[in-house]
Design brief:
It is a single chain. The chain is of the alpha+beta class and 91 residues long. Helix content is 21%, strand content 31%. It has helices at 4-11, 40-50, and strands spanning 18-21, 26-33, 55-62, 78-85. Strands 1-2-4-3 form a 4-stranded antiparallel β-sheet, covered by helices on one side.
Length: 91
C-alpha cells in the first residue's frame, strides 16, 4: 500500500504530471508531453533518485497524433508512463 507521504514525494518529482495507485500495490507515474523532451528511462531515473529501491514492472509511451486545433484527443494527450513497486515498511 502506498502511503500519503510516498504519494506526495512522487508528485514532487520533476516531470511527473500524474500518478495512479493500483490494487496490486504498484504505482504508475505519468509524464504528459506535447514535444517529447523526456524518455521512459529519464522518468524512471528521476523516480529512482527519490525511491532508490523501487522495482520497475513495465513502462510505455502513448503517442497521440496531432489532430489540429484544440480538438479533444489532440497531441497533448501523449504521455510516457512507468509502473513500479515501492518498498513497504516491512522490507
Amino acid at each position: 500500500m502506498v502511503t500519503k507521504n510516498q504519494k506526495d514525494m512522487l508528485r514532487g518529482i520533476d516531470g511527473v504530471s500524474g500518478i495512479k495507485c493500483h490494487r496490486d500495490g504498484t504505482v504508475t507515474a505519468f509524464h504528459s508531453y506535447f514535444y517529447r523532451t523526456m524518455t521512459r528511462l529519464d522518468l524512471w531515473e528521476r523516480i529512482l533518485k527519490v525511491f532508490s529501491n523501487a522495482k520497475r514492472v513495465e513502462d510505455g509511451d502513448h503517442y497521440h497524433d496531432f489532430v489540429g486545433g484544440s480538438k479533444a484527443g489532440g497531441s497533448t494527450d501523449s504521455y510516457i508512463w512507468v509502473r513500479f513497486e515501492l518498498p513497504t515498511d516491512k522490507e
